[in-house]
């Protein structure tokens, strides 16, 4: 069986470029021509490396979730306390309302909104992405309970699910153009609910 010529480009860089495009324009809004231009590929190279637009999207989605969760975990490890980490996550989203990156929303929630329940593969991607983010928050909540900033009788898994949905919702509100004062009030209420 012939596997074609060796790849003459960096697949990780190409995936990153495609991820940025999907994140900004959505799956349906991103054409094959958009992808070829952003990735610097010919159509034959694209199909040799990624098989299809859907397969590339799945790879980009996984890349996004691993990137976001790795940033969160690094922030948790560098914070002086788990509570500081939780605060920083939410204030960073609210304070980033003027950032082009934050105005894109969350690729995970953008994807969930775009596809709904129509595509089983996408539903599984969204579910696995939620698990990645929840895992970091579970660790943070358990650490906060040890430190005494969150009550020990509360379920870390339930709180982590709440934090993921709150973070995703906040990113969606940033994308919708909500004012910083409104975002600040939401953050204060999210944090207040943990006490």
UniProtKB/TrEMBL annotation:
Keywords: DNA-binding, Transcription, Transcription regulation
GO MF, one example: DNA binding
InterPro entries for the chain: Homeodomain-like_sf (IPR009057), HTH_TetR (IPR001647), Tet_transcr_reg_TetR-rel_C_sf (IPR036271), TetR_C (IPR011075)
Ranges of the DNA-binding region feature: 31-50
Residue ranges annotated for the HTH tetR-type domain, each copy included: 8-68
Entry-linked Gene3D superfamilies: Homeodomain-like (1.10.10.60), Tetracycline Repressor, domain 2 (1.10.357.10)
Matching PANTHER family: TRANSCRIPTIONAL REGULATORY PROTEIN
Protein name (record): TetR family transcriptional regulator
């Amino acid at each position: 069986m012939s596997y074609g010529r060796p790849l003459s480009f960096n697949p990780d860089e190409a995936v990153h470029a495609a991820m940025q495009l999907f994140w900004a324009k959505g799956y349906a809004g991103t054409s094959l021509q958009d992808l070829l231009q952003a990735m610097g590929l010919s159509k034959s190279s694209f199909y040799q490396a990624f098989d299809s637009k859907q397969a590339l999207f799945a790879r980009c989605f996984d890349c996004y979730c691993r990137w976001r969760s790795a940033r969160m975990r690094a922030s948790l490890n560098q914070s002086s306390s788990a509570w500081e980490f939780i605060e920083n996550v939410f204030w960073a989203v609210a304070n980033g309302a003027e950032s082009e990156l934050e105005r894109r929303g969350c690729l995970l929630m953008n994807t969930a909104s775009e596809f709904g329940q129509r595509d089983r593969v996408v539903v599984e991607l969204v579910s696995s992405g939620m698990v990645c983010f929840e895992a970091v928050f579970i660790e943070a909540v358990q650490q906060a309970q040890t430190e005494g900033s969150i009550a020990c009788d509360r379920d870390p898994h339930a709180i982590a699910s709440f934090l993921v949905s709150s973070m995703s919702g906040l990113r969606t509100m940033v994308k919708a153009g909500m004012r910083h004062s409104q975002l600040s009030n939401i953050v204060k209420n999210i944090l207040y609910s943990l006490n």
